[in-house]
Amino acid sequence: MEEKNYKEYLEHITTFVFDVDGVLTDGTIIVTSTGEMLRNMNIKDGYALKTAVDLGYNVCIISGGSNEGVRSRLKGLGVTDIYLGIQDKTEKLDEYMDIYNIAPENVLYMGDDIPDLFSMQMVGLPCCPQDAAPEIKHICKYVSHKNGGKGCVRDVIEQVLKVQGKWNNKADAKYD
User: Fold this and answer.
1) What is the Cα–Cα distance from 162 to 94, expressed in whole angstroms?
2) Phi and psi of 38, rounded to 5°?
């Protein structure tokens, strides 16, 4: 059986699930003298997340990390389903899809490392940043040309919205 091109999956996506470290960030942390861990997030990823939320897509964050600054940033973008400090991502993803009655084929999950592996195998469109672990790249139907924290989230959201005719049509008309 011939494998579908990843673009064929985009029209069915209603739900975006993202890891934080290595996806929404470049995976680097700065540890302050007080022990606080600081992360960088890409403003273009933030714009895409807010756009997806505003258009009514399900947006879910599942992360093993538990930085409250991350929660604050994402809440500011309108993301309400933020699960931090999660050790079993598959259990949380299964619970999330069950609560919202979401079919696996309607989910795009972007992760970058081994803790995301099994959850990514549960969904219709597993994706990863360009600098993801080899084991993750191997199971992905799409590998972004952008690294984690450098626009990979914007990349996948924009592709889905464009295929579904929901990206900023004025911008598309001007720049396509």
Assistant:
1) 28
2) -100, 145
Any idea of the CA torsion for 110, 114, 115, 119, to the nearest 10 degrees?
50
Residue 37 phi, psi (nearest 5):
-105, 120
- Residues 112, 27: Cα–Cα separation, whole Å: 10
Q: What angle do CA 132, 95, 160 make, to 5 degrees?
A: 50
| Per-residue pLDDT at 175 | 42
Q: Which residues contact 157 (CB under 8 A, 6 or more apart)?
A: 16, 48, 49, 51, 52
Rg, the chain, Cα only: 15
0.85 cut: is pTM over it? yes
Helix (H/G/I), strand (E/B), else coil: 107: strand
- 92-108 average pLDDT score: 98
